[in-house]
């Protein structure tokens, strides 16, 4: 089974992964590393640079008793020396799980089609489901029956969070500038779970009565040529102390302080961004162990 976006799981399976993550987190804090992945190896393909993704997966494998192999652009160039499908077939003979952080979502789909082991999407231009697992684990720990407002770009992080919110019954409002909303097919998939987000172009309306505000960078990796256009389009969408109020701040990081969020907000006691960052580690361990049991 592959994990290429959140709704590759059923609602029950998503709940099971989050339950397993919470248990593994608690067990690690009480007893330390485990042997869940003793003798097993994770192959990690990276086209995009990363802090949280690499460290959380590599550390997670160590804490589970396994081993991770980093494969950067100079080690394994997708569409370079050999086709993606050949890389997938070869890795499937060496490792127990493949994780890929790449630009084109079609590449993880092809890896998943031809690898004989589970493939995990650790970020593509369309989705970031591992981040959503961490987000949902954080929401579970911080709130009871909350409303979350997304303010900013309807990007890959937002799209996966929309699906995760729909699947877990989380009330979500999404405020984006015109032309930067969530893809129609993602909204349709969320509607299939009976809990689509409210959408608006008004940040103030989105955050009214919300318990938390979630934002992300306006200019993602690979979009640098759109920077000036986006900064103009997103005027009025910055999360300031006035917009945040007494709500919690969520952000997948890294934050472009002074753009989508002010430095003061990130440094405030209302920021739970470091809990989200830590939960990448625990949520991904939960996913790895759950996948190994299937």
Spell out the blueprint of helices and strands:
Elements: H1 11-31, E1 41-46, H2 52-63, E2 67-71, H3 84-94, E3 97-101, H4 105-114, E4 119-121, H5 129-142, E5 147-151, H6 156-168, E6 171-175, H7 184-191, E7 198-200, H8 203-207, E8 212-215, H9 227-233, H10 241-244, E9 248-251, H11 263-266, H12 273-292
Helix pairs in contact: 1-12, 2-12, 3-4, 5-6, 5-12, 6-7
Q: Would you kindly provide a written description of the structure presented here, covering whatever features stand out?
A:
With 294 residues, the chain is α/β, with parallel strands linked by helices. The protein has 2 domains: 6-127 and 280-292, Aspartate/ornithine carbamoyltransferase (Rossmann fold), CATH 3.40.50; 130-276, Rossmann fold. It contains 12 helices and 9 strands. Helix 4 (105-114) links the parallel strand 3 and strand 4. Helix 3 crosses helix 4 and helix 6 runs parallel beside helix 7 (184-191). The relative contact order is 0.17. The mean pLDDT is 96.
């Amino acid at each position: 089974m592959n994990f290429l976006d959140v709704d590759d799981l059923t609602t029950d399976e998503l709940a099971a992964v989050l339950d397993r993550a919470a248990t593994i987190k608690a067990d690690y804090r009480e007893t330390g590393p485990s042997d869940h992945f003793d003798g097993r190896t994770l192959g990690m393909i990276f086209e995009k640079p990363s802090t949280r993704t690499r460290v959380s997966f590599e550390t997670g494998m160590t804490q589970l008793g396994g081993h991770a192999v980093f494969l950067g652009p100079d080690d394994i160039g997708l569409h370079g020396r050999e086709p993606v499908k050949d890389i997938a077939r070869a890795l499937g003979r060496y490792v127990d799980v493949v994780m890929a952080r790449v630009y084109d979502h079609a590449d993880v789909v092809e890896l998943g089609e031809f690898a004989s082991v589970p493939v995990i999407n650790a970020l593509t231009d369309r989705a970031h489901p591992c981040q959503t697992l961490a987000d949902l684990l954080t929401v579970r720990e911080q709130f009871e029956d909350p409303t979350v407002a997304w303010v900013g770009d309807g990007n890959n992080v937002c799209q996966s969070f929309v699906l995760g919110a729909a699947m877990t019954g989380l009330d979500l409002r999404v405020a984006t500038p015109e032309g930067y909303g969530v893809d129609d097919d993602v909204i349709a998939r969320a509607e299939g779970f009976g809990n689509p987000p409210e959408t608006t172009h008004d940040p103030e309306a989105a955050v009214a009565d919300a318990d938390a505000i979630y934002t992300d960078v306006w200019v993602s990796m690979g979009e640098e040529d759109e920077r000036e256009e986006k900064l103009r389009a997103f005027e009025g969408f910055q999360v300031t102390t006035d917009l945040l109020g007494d709500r919690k701040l969520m952000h997948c990081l890294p934050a472009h302080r002074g753009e989508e969020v002010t430095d003061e907000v990130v440094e405030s006691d209302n920021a739970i961004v470091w809990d989200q960052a830590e939960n990448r580690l625990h949520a991904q361990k939960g996913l790895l162990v759950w996948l190994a049991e299937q």
